[in-house]
From TrEMBL:
Family annotation (Pfam families): Glyoxalase_6
Name the record gives this protein: Glyoxalase
Domain of life: Bacteria
The organism's taxonomic lineage, starting at the top: Bacteria, Bacillati, Actinomycetota, Actinomycetes, Mycobacteriales
CDD domains, A to Z: VOC (cd06587)
Alphabetized PANTHER family for the sequence: CONSERVED PROTEIN, HYPOTHETICAL FUSION PROTEIN
Signal sequence coordinates: none
Length: 116
């Protein structure tokens, strides 16, 4: 048996709004399966992103987040901040591996590191 990552789903208060933001951020297409309740963003090169309305999103730090790579990390950080994300930190393991932590407009953390 082989498992395939089909979808990564985020709990949120407004799935329509958050899906629109992520669709612009990752150049994806929004599909409102149940508008206001469950919306997806389909991407050409990765798993589907799902957004599910919940009455009380988990407080505190995410237990799961999405990691992205980019050939121009600083350019992507600037673009995503321009769309409404905010930078929450920068980290590294030595000088060889660095990444930037951002949060989407709903506060969900995600990271960007240099493409290897």
């Amino acid at each position: 048996m082989t498992l395939k990552v089909e979808m990564i789903t985020l709990d949120c208060e407004d799935p329509d709004e958050l899906a629109r933001w992520w669709a612009e951020a990752v150049d994806g297409e929004v599909t409102p399966f149940a508008p206001g309740e469950f919306v997806t963003v389909t991407r050409a090169d990765g798993p589907i992103l799902g957004f599910q309305r919940v009455p009380d999103p988990t407080p505190g730090k995410n237990k799961l987040h999405i990691d992205f790579t980019a050939t121009d990390v600083e350019g992507e950080v600037k673009r995503l901040v321009g769309l409404g994300a905010h930078e929450t930190g920068r980290h590294s393991f030595g000088e060889e591996f660095n990444w930037v932590v951002l949060a989407d407009p709903a506060g969900n953390a995600f990271c960007i590191a240099a493409a290897g």
